[in-house]
Amino acid sequence: MNIIGATDPDRAWEEFGQEEPYFGVITSSKFHNSNLNDESIEEFFQSGETHVEHICHTLRSKVKPSFKLDRVLDYGCGVGRLVVPFSKRCQSVVGVDVSPAMLAHAQKNCERRSINHAQFVHAADLGSLAPGSFDLVHSYIVFQHIPIGRGERIFRDLIGLIAEGGVGAIHFTYAYDWRTLRRLLYEIRARSGIVHSLLNVLQGKRFSRPFMQMNIYSVNRILDILYGAGCLNLHVEFSCHFGWRGAMVYFEKTSVGPPVNPCMLSLN
Questions:
Q1: What's this model's pTM, rounded to 2 decimal places?
Q2: Residue 6, class by beta-carbon neighbours within 10 Å (0-12 exposed, 13-18 middle, 19+ buried)?
Q3: C-alpha distances in angstroms, 209 versus 160, 178, 203, 204, 212?
Q4: Do residues 133 and 161 make contact, with C-beta atoms less than 8 angstroms apart?
Q5: 65-75, pLDDT tens digit by residue?
Q6: 222 near 172, Cβ under 8 Å?
Q7: Strands ordered across the beta sheet of 244-253
Q8: H-run or E-run covering 58
Q9: Burial group, residue 61, by CB count within 10 angstroms (0-12, 13-18, 19+)
Q10: Domains of the chain and any CATH numbers
């Protein structure tokens, strides 16, 4: 189900990238520009370190014990929260984002840390990357902000970038656990620019602050895309943030077509 705000999502993320890049990645008040300091920035990147360590451990323990980490792509990289820790574990990493401002911050964060084997690519140029050239393609809390039809096309493109024998770890939102009134208010805000803007003012925010859209993906569609692309050895982890139910889908790409043997799916 699409839950789409009046604001164009690409323009909205560029505004977040220009005005509140760290908060746009993790919606916690400590990451507002006015609250950023050395301690909060260190906490921000440490959270990325913890996430990447978990991703690597899960892939090796649940999907492919022999999985290597030479070339990595992080889709929706933002300011580089995960590019930085990935760079410590691989020979090269590519960060992709729709926001030029976010990419500029990510580049600076790598330069400050003397990381010279990270490359940054605008999402519109995803097609410039060679098919089958990555050992791991990763994306976390990103697709929920992309309209579903477009997100499914991007998902297929990302699978195409994984080398045979490579792995993926992609997060999707598939449901939301809200009471009827809260759900109704959210959907009204999502579909009415003026309602959203008035609520911005009531919350002490800028009138024209863009809406951060959320979209719910079909689990059936995601699994069918994986099956059609020859991905199996699936493992799923569930999560819930602010009432939004998500699933991190780990998988191995083993062939260029549907697998002969049934997919093996384990759920946490």
A1: 0.86
A2: middle
A3: 35, 24, 11, 11, 9
A4: yes
A5: 998 899 999 99
A6: yes
A7: 118-122, 92-97, 71-75, 134-139, 162-176, 244-253, 231-241, 265-267
A8: helix 38-58
A9: exposed
A10: 9-176+213-267 (3.40.50.150)
